[in-house]
């Protein structure tokens, strides 16, 4: 009977040691499950979206390899975005294609493009055909464009380079403020 009591007491001692050990274990870190303030609200791969004006006209169509939306500041970050702007008067006609390595869209509909920025006209009749720079800001509602970097502009019968671009894609207006070089092609 002495052996039985030793076995029962040993099992009870082991059970108490296991229980004590489990109480002292660090619990799973639940903070990893809680969304951090600076983490994106949602992320996506190969996303496409169409944005309409309050009157129901298409404003722009955007697609991107990667998208992250941050609700705390309202910014949306894009990797390899392509944005198609629509004619403001006729929402059925795409007028410009914007592309870059990265972009950030803010609450006020400003698109901050970074790295290999290209604005390409989708109309053969457009006076401005192509704008290239490293960084630019485009207001997606008004289609105003700005850049403080070196800009190359190709249009019908001209080519310009310079700094500090301001313009409007819809109205096909572009002004360079500094270090401007323009070459005109005269057709006979």
From TrEMBL:
Entry keyword annotation includes Cytoplasm: no
InterPro entries in the cross-refs: LipoPS_assembly_LptC-rel, LPS_export_LptC, LptC
Location of the protein in the cell: Cell inner membrane
Protein keywords: Cell inner membrane, Cell membrane, Membrane, Transmembrane, Transmembrane helix
GO cellular component: outer membrane-bounded periplasmic space; plasma membrane
UniProt superkingdom: Bacteria
Membrane topology reported for the UniProt record: Single-pass membrane protein
BP GO terms, sorted: Gram-negative-bacterium-type cell outer membrane assembly
One of the record's GO molecular function terms: lipopolysaccharide transmembrane transporter activity
Pfam families: LptC (PF06835)
Alphabetical list of NCBIfam families matching this protein: LptC_YrbK
Binding partners and assembly: Component of the lipopolysaccharide transport and assembly complex. Interacts with LptA and the LptBFG transporter complex.
Protein's job: Involved in the assembly of lipopolysaccharide (LPS). Required for the translocation of LPS from the inner membrane to the outer membrane. Facilitates the transfer of LPS from the inner membrane to the periplasmic protein LptA. Could be a docking site for LptA. Required for the translocation of lipopolysaccharide (LPS) from the inner membrane to the outer membrane.
Similarity section: Belongs to the LptC family.
Name by which UniProt lists this protein: Lipopolysaccharide export system protein LptC
Source species of the chain: Pasteurella dagmatis ATCC 43325
Gene: lptC
């Amino acid at each position: 009977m002495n052996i039985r009591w030793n076995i029962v007491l040993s099992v009870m001692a082991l059970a108490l040691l296991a229980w004590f050990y489990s109480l002292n274990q660090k619990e799973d870190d639940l903070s990893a499950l809680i969304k951090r303030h600076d983490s994106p609200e949602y992320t996506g791969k190969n996303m496409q979206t169409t944005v309409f004006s309050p009157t129901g006209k298409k404003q722009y169509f955007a697609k991107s390899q990667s998208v992250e939306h941050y609700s705390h500041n309202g910014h949306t970050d894009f990797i390899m975005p392509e944005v198609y702007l629509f004619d403001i008067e006729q929402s059925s006609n795409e007028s410009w294609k914007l592309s870059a390595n990265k972009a950030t869209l803010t609450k006020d509909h400003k698109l901050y493009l970074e790295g290999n920025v290209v604005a390409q006209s989708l109309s053969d009749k457009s006076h401005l055909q192509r704008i290239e720079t490293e960084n630019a800001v485009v207001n997606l509602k008004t289609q105003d464009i700005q850049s403080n970097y070196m800009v190359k502009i190709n249009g019908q019968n001209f080519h310009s380079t310079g700094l500090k671009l301001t313009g409007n894609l819809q109205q096909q207006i572009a002004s360079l403020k500094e270090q401007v070089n323009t070459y005109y092609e005269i057709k006979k």
